[in-house]
Write a structure and sequence with these properties.
- The strands form 4 sheets. Strands 3, 5, 6, 9, 10, 17 and 18 form a 7-stranded mixed beta sheet that branches. Strands 13-12-11-14-15-16 form a 6-stranded parallel beta sheet, sandwiched between helices. A 3-stranded antiparallel beta sheet has the order 2-1-4, with no helix packed on it.
- The longest helix has 21 residues.
- The termini are close together.
- A hairpin with an 8-residue loop joins β1 and β2.
- It is built from 10 helices and 18 strands.
- It folds into 2 domains: 204 residues, Quinone Oxidoreductase, Chain A, domain 1 (Alpha-Beta Complex); 138 residues, Quinone Oxidoreductase, Chain A, domain 1 (Alpha-Beta Complex).
- By secondary structure, it is an alpha/beta fold.
- The radius of gyration is 20 Å and the shape is globular.
Amino acid sequence: MRACVLTATGGIDKLAIIDVPDASAPGAGEVRVRIRAAALNHLDLFVADGLPGGGTAERFPFVVGADGAGVVETVGPGVTNVQPADRVLINPGISDCTCEFCRAGEHSLCVNYRLLGEHLPGTMAELVTVPAQNVVRGPNLSPALTWAEAAAFSLVTLTAWRMLVTRAQLKAGETALIWGIGGGVSLTAMRIAKLVGARVIVTSSDDAKLAAAKQLGADVTLNHRTQQVAAEVRALTNKRGVDVVVENVGAATWDDSLRCLRRGGRLVTCGATSGPQVHLDLRRVFWHHWSILGSTMGNAAEYAEVVGRLAKGELRPVVDRVYPLDHARDAYERLARGEQLGKLVVELP
């Protein structure tokens, strides 16, 4: 099968489009999906660079891509939730469903949790084999959900839902600050925040992205290249600060994120694109009763919830650009430059 692979770690120049062995035939409880589209996440850049601790475990060539959607080709013994020819979305988080966290319904805390395209061969190939519990039928929408939209949905929507709804428990009438609105998680977080009735302040260094975010529902937009975000937020909130800060930038924004937070506020983070090491004065944390919340992906119940929201016509993904498989590296390069607003997708023939 044709696939986009890493031939080594060290950057996106190690990507290649080559023929690799077909994904394995499905075993008990598994399905093999013929991929129609795969979407990029910032995680894919980290995998290409080489994540600390291995990730790809030196298994080259390594098929990249966490997000994907396609058609069920074959099913293994015992599979009843889908059948061949079903159009499906793929949840890229693989849990063992046996550990104490899985038994408690917290699948993304699984002690053996793995992600497609990081720990396991990914979705940017003609075929991928996954547990049947990780696929759901694509909902019927009007107009129909495109393959690009289907591929762009799962990772960022599940991540943002858990961050805003489950972890930070954002409520109607509260105010949230969301950094870097061009990214998929940030853009989806903004839309979820508006869905629950919150006021949303977003940032970007690109005025065109801010204008687009305004059209998509942002209440206030700030250019973090030309404006002092913390000062602006304090002024906008009469020095009170915001109820929730959504962080995935890390070192570059951490101090300002805390300056923007009200007493008793919640900061929720799922990433560290600018670096993982931050300064934290614990005296400020306990004095202001701040909650610092980590979040990664989500559980099966949350995934069912966001798919249900999609079926209602809510949270439909914003797709920035679509590339053919042979031009997958162009998608990576656009992501690396931070030029996108929404998701970058690679379609397979």
